[in-house]
Amino acid sequence: MKIAITGATGQLGRLVIQSLLRRGVPAADLIAAVRTPAKAADLAALGVQVRQADYTRPDTLAAALQGVDRLLLISSSEVGQRTAQHRAAIDAAKAAGVKLVAYTSLLRADTSPLGLAAEHVATEALLRESGLPTVLLRNGWYTENYLASAPVALQHGAVLGSAKDGRIAAATRADYAEAAAVAISGEGQAGRTYELAGDASWTLADFAAELARQSGKPVVYKDLPEADYAAVLVQAGLPQGFADLLADSDVGASRGGLFDDSRTLSRLIGRPTTPLADAVKAALAA
Question: Is 261 within the bounds of a domain?
Answer without folding.
Answer: no
